[in-house]
Structure formats: C-alpha cells, structure tokens
Amino acid sequence: MQGEPMTSLISAIVWMVLLIGIFYFLLYRPQQQQRKKHEEFLKNLKKGDKVITTGGIIGEVKQIDEKTIILKVCETCSIKVLKPSVATYYTEEEKSQS
Fold it and tell me: Could you tell me the sign of the dihedral formed by the alpha carbons of 88, 85, 35, 49, in that order?
C-alpha cells in the first residue's frame, strides 16, 4: 500500500513530460523553424526582387531600409511596407494563375 502513491506520482510526472515533449515537437519547433526561414528570406531580399506581401500586394523591391521596404507596384506608384509583411517571392507560376 505504501508504494502506490509514489508510483502514481511518477506515472503522472512521466505523462506530463511526455505531453510537453509532444507539444514542443508538434507545435513550437515547426513554428520556430518557419520563423527562422522567414527571417533568412528577409535578409536575402535585394533590390529588383518581385515579392508578395501578406496583404496580397505584388511589387518590385525598390529600396530596403532596416525596418521597411519600398515596393514599386506600378510605373508611377510606390508604397512603403514593413519588412515582416513581405511574405514570399512572386514567381512565374503565380502569374499564370491570376
């Protein structure tokens, strides 16, 4: 009878550690890797790249500052957006879909 409470306590701790491990590998770690990949993408941006913002605006990088990017969206129009709002490169595949 004296061993039962200790066994259930150890069992509860093992389950808790297992759940934390599952949470880490299924949720936190992939999100962390995705964030690092996006930061690397932003570091590698250069003038002339065609990009899409998270709001769906397509433009060409005209100027890059520390926190902002100026996008040329048409011949006479440029907009300033925050760097993290640039989602991805604009590719030829996306042109054919629109």
Answer: positive
What confidence tier does 89 reach under pLDDT thresholds 50, 70, 90?
very high
CB 42 within 8 A of CB 83: yes
Residue 86 class from Cβ within 10 Å (0-12 exposed, 13-18 middle, 19+ buried)? Answer: buried
Contacts of 64 (CB under 8 A, 6+ apart): 45, 46, 47, 70, 83
Residue carrying the six token digits 């042109």: 95
pLDDT tens track for 26-62? 999 999 999 999 999 999 999 999 999 999 999 999 9
Contacts of 15 (CB under 8 A, 6+ apart): none
Q: How far apart are CA 6 and CA 62, in angstroms?
A: 66
pTM comes to 0.70
